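wait is this the right file?? whatever heres the structure
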């Protein structure tokens, strides 16, 4: 993945975030040390009751996961994204972010791939209908807001660190992310013959719009 260009930071939540840029993320099997927090960044947790709450606009938000088989990209759309973020009323870093993805809404371009994606061998939507990310911002630097948290998918939880870029328009917050997960970390095993040709990496593209709620 290419490194996002260095851009001029703005003020406010998504305060360190440059307008209209792409996000990146990394998922590891074990937590990694947090980078040094720049002067002025908010790190001490406070009561959520003292913070401004923003909610994800479901109809304006989406997630697309893609895997490759024999060099062909196979995207799976998961449109049902909800969640909340708690932000300092002074526009500092969010104390907490919660995102829920209804994986039972997953749909591919073909019916057979939709069935495979939802099956017990892959997303197992009957047993685990939702994926969830919970985290908070730990730093804002170089035009990037870094979220550190835990992703739970298919009943398996792994630490996830996400570098976010986005923009603010009036009271509306927008953010986009592009990152990769190793499907084996979450038990996504489609079985033979698909296992022979499917890439280990699953690309994720996330776009969310949040309004005060």
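ok assuming it is, sequence goes like this
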């Amino acid at each position: 993945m290419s490194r996002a260009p260095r851009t001029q930071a703005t003020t406010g939540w998504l305060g360190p975030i440059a307008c209209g840029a792409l996000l990146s993320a990394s998922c590891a099997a074990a937590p990694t040390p947090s980078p040094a927090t720049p002067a002025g960044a908010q790190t001490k947790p406070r009561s959520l009751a003292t913070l401004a709450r923003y909610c994800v606009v479901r109809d304006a938000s989406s997630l697309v996961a893609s895997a490759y088989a024999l060099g062909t990209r196979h995207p799976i759309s998961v449109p049902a994204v909800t969640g909340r973020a708690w932000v300092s009323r002074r526009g500092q870093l969010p104390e907490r972010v919660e995102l829920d993805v209804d994986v039972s809404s997953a749909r591919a371009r073909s019916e057979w791939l939709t069935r495979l994606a939802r099956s017990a061998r892959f997303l197992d939507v009957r047993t685990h209908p939702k994926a969830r990310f919970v985290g908070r911002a730990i730093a804002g630097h170089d035009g990037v807001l870094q979220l550190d948290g835990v992703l739970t998918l298919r009943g398996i939880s792994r630490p996830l660190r996400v570098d976010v870029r986005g923009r603010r328009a009036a009271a509306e917050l927008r953010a986009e992310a592009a990152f990769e997960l190793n499907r084996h970390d979450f038990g996504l095993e489609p079985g033979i013959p698909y296992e022979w040709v499917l890439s280990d990496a699953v690309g994720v593209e996330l776009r969310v719009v949040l309004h005060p709620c």
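DSSP finds two helices and twelve strands in the chain. so i think its the right one actually
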